[in-house]
Every structure is written in C-alpha cells, then in structure tokens.
Amino acid sequence: MTEMPAPGTADPVRVLDADALKGLAHPLRVQIFDLLAIHGPQTASGAAERVGESSGVTSYHLRQLAKHGLVREVEGRGTARERWWERVPGSIAIMPADDDASPAVRAASSTLVRHWEQSRTQLLSTFIARAEADLSKRWVLASAISWANLRLTVEQLEGLTVAWEAFSAEHLEPLRGQNQPGSRPVQVQFNAFPVIDGEPTPTTDGSE
Predict the structure, then answer these.
(1) Which of 10, 30, 81, 87 has its CA 20 to 30 A from that of 196?
(2) Inter-residue contact 29 to 64 (CB < 8 Å)
(3) Residue 85: which H helix or E strand, with range?
C-alpha cells in the first residue's frame, strides 16, 4: 500500500520499518491515525469522542504514534493540558514482507492493510447509505463510484498502477493540506488487483 507524494516536495515516501509497523498495528492506533488523516488535527478529547474511548486512552495511543514518528503535536496550538495532534506530513508505504521477515512483522503488515481496506469499505458504505439524506444534490452529483472488470497481463497491470501513481502525483497531491471555505473531507479510492480465484488466460509458451 503506497501513497505517492507530490513531485518536488520535501516529503518523500516513508517505507515503514519493522518497529513502526508493529507500533502502528494496533486497532485503535490505526483508527486514530486514519482519523487524523481524514479529519485533520485533533485533541485527545476530540479523538476520544470520535472513536468511543476515554481521552486517557487516546492520549496514550497518540503518544505511542508520536514515538514512532507517525503523528506530532501541532506547533503553537493548544495548552499543556489539551494538546493538539496531527498526522506527520508525507506519504507512507507498506512494502511486501521480505522472505526473512519475522512472523510479527508479517502479522503487523497484514493487520494494517486489512484495517485500511475495512476503513475504506466502511466509508464508501456510509456514503451510499446516507448521501442523499446528508448532502446537497450538488455534492452527490459531484461524487462517483466507478470500477472496471478487465483481463490484463501483469505488464498491463504494472502500467496501470504507474499511470495511477502519476495521476495521483499530478492531480491529488497539490490538493493535500488545503482547507478552503466550503470544503469538506473527501476520500478518493482506487483499487486494481488480480482476482484471486480468477483463471488466467493460458499463454502460448505455458507460462503465467
């Protein structure tokens, strides 16, 4: 799972190491990390209200995320008793585990990817269920749910992924971090993957 940075920015993609993976791979920490990414800076109390926990619990997990360089305090905002926290800028990546990776690292990586996909699915399901009741018609019409079923070679899938990353860098990254009047959180989703139980088309040389 990778989020690409804008070209020329000072925030390169951070590949999470084993310690960061294991530090983030806690259900509530992933939820808080997602919360900061989607809704912006929060206090421990504000995060607690959104995730249904006490402020003491969210404060502890925010400090643990900060220990691994995943969140940080917002400079010049808050007090000694009520600190504001934000997601550290820059994209992160979870790379496939090496052959010699420990079971703990493999489990942490799997946990993170699984949670993020569940989170994306939940956000989309909530939009489908509540869009017409909670949003103006213009917001609904400006939204899109789109997919395509294709038969691709691995080279074509690689090309599609590269094209998406280029599109993301050009069109999505410049929009990160803005907070214009009238704006609201918007999530852009794109999935491209082989269907696990799909049968590959045979090649002339017998390879896949």
Answers:
(1) 30
(2) yes
(3) strand 83-87
For residue range 98-139, list pLDDT tens digits in order: 767 788 888 888 888 888 888 889 999 999 999 999 999 999
Name beta bridge partners: 72: 86
Q: Whole-angstrom Cα distance, residue 162 to residue 188?
A: 17
Relative to beta strand 42-43, strand 83-87 is antiparallel
Tell me the helices (H) and strands (E) count for the chain, helix number first.
7, 5
Burial 35-63 (b: 16+ CB within 10 A, else e): bbbeeebbbbebbbeebebebebbbebbe
Residue type, 14: R
Task: Give the whole-angstrom CA distance, residue 123 versus residue 134.
Answer: 14
Structure tokens belonging to residue 54: 């006490």
